[in-house]
């Protein structure tokens, strides 16, 4: 389950031009979970939330490009 504050954030809150590909961000998310052993600390949770926001922005950008 995502933290409540994540719901208030949006991909538009990222600075323009800062979006990596969804695949790159997804790889970072997977690496974070592997390093954490499946349980995230508060700091790792914050990093995870930012990565999910970035991933969503990358997906959104891919959908717009495809249209």
What are the defining features of this structure?
single chain; 67 residues; mainly alpha; 67% helix
Blueprint (SSEs and pairs):
Blueprint: H1 4-8, H2 22-36, H3 42-66
| Major sheet attributes | none
Number of helices: 3
Structural class: mainly alpha
Global mean pLDDT: 81
Share of helix, binned: 55-70%
Low-confidence region ranges: 1-9
Strand tally, please? 0
Shape summary: elongated
Spatial separation of the terminal alpha carbons = 30 Å
The percent range for strand residues is under 5%
**C-alpha Rg (nearest Å):** 12 Å
Question: Topology as H/E string?
Answer: HHH
Characterization of the model:
This protein is mainly alpha-helical. 67% of the residues lie in helices and 0% in strands. It has helices at 4-8, 22-36, 42-66.
Offer a quick outline of the entry.
Helix content is 67%, strand content 0%. By secondary structure, the protein is mainly alpha-helical.
């Amino acid at each position: 389950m995502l933290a409540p504050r994540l719901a208030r954030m949006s991909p538009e809150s990222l600075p323009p031009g800062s979006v990596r590909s969804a695949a790159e961000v997804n790889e970072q998310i997977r690496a974070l979970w592997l390093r954490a052993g499946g349980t995230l600390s508060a700091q790792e949770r914050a990093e995870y939330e930012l990565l999910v926001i970035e991933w969503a922005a990358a997906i959104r950008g891919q959908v717009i490009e495809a249209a």
